[in-house]
Amino acid sequence: MIRDLFEGDERDVHLAPGAMLLGGFARRFEGPLLTALQRVLELAPLRQMVTPGGHRMSVAMTNCGTAGWVTDRTGYRYERHDPQSGHPWPPMPAVFADLAVQAAARAGFDGFAPDACLVNRYEPGARLSLHQDKNERDLEAPIVSVSLGLPAVFLFGGLRRPDTPHRVPLAHGDVVVWGGPARLRYHGVLPLEEGYHPFMTGHRINLTFRKAA
Ligand code: MD3
Ligand code: FE
Predict the structure, then answer these.
(1) What average pLDDT does the segment 68-89 reach?
(2) In this structure, which residue's CA is closest to atom 22 in ligand 1?
(3) 12-210 has which CATH code?
(4) Is the pLDDT of residue 114 over 70?
(5) Which ligand is nearest to the Cα of residue 156, counting in written order?
(6) N or C: which end of the chain has fewer CB within 10 A?
(7) Nearest in space to 211 (alpha carbons), one of 133, 124, 143, 160
(8) Structural domain spans, the chain
(9) What are the pocket residues of ligand 1 if the criterion is a CB atom closer than 6 Å to any ligand atom?
(10) 149: phi > 0 → left, psi -120 to 50 → alpha, else beta; which?
(11) How far is Cα 152 from Cα 207, in angstroms, rounded to an integer?
């Protein structure tokens, strides 16, 4: 596979108008990123939230930053406090913000100022069905996503739910910037396959940086 020939290198791949894959971009932040992530998870533990339809999500989530994405029986929204603890979400670590801002700039979005970082943890079998991200107030700002640990197959659809999605493999250290005409495209993640990754044994973590408020 072409991908294997480039393993370890950084590649910028234009996926669609407004969507750019920065292959391996997060690797240079790896150590400090993991340390900062562990601290966030201590302050705001991962939890499986419930959708408005009453389903428990297979992906476990938490947040850092001044706003955090939550779902419960009353709907999807951003909240300034962790509903589980009543405390504000942990502050966004500097290394998180640096990574997101640098990736956005590299993809052509200067001045990205994320105030929310959603942390998603996938165990084998966990998946995310096709959806749009539209709870953010400012849809002009891009979303920056960072994949860590086990690889996943990302589904990249169109602006209408029935549009057949493309399958994009995402590996450890890959960063994708979604903005402009790609910002409201449907997307999801296929069920995670079992595996071992030295950085995150047995699971995948995805960070998504957003301007929510
Ligand atoms: C394309 N997370 O948290 S990140 C999500 O891997 C989410 O955990 C996935 O979708 C994950 O909402 C995918 C990639 C992503 C994020 C936002 C997008 C792709 C996007 C917004 C518009 C188009
Ligand atoms: Fe999403």
Answers:
(1) 98
(2) 183
(3) 2.60.120.590
(4) yes
(5) 1
(6) N
(7) 143
(8) 12-210
(9) 118, 120, 128, 133, 143, 145, 154, 176, 178, 182-183, 185, 187, 189, 206, 208
(10) left
(11) 14
